What we know:
alpha/beta; 6 helices; two-stranded parallel sheet; 142 residues
Amino acid sequence: MIRGVPGLHLAAIVQRSGTEAAEKYPDIRIVRSLDELLSMAEIRLVVIATPNETHYPFARQCLAAGRDVVVDKPFTTTLEEAVSLVQFAKDANRLLTVYQNRRYDGDFQALFESLSQTESWAASSIRTSYDRFRRTQARRLA
């Protein structure tokens, strides 16, 4: 996604172990820790797409290091973490936002198309969902 946005440059990927990132992106620097990434002065924006429970501490560490941050959903695992992180970003005068890719999914696009073709729309609610694999679900199913 980063390479598809004009003005953004993918500078580095954190992959703690393995070689998949280096194989897929041979022209990109692969680092083994967030600390190593944050030691790179040219990094101005960090995208956090890690396990949910790491979103808050990683985002806070990046903000504290003077970086702007985009966090994958869920933003944090608790409301308290979210409020704290937003305030921390404000105090540090850093950009902090949540990655919003769902608006490009088929169900959202169909809804937008439908709404654009009608003058008034009286639905009181819409329910949609998506599932994703989680290790805890796999253990319960086994």
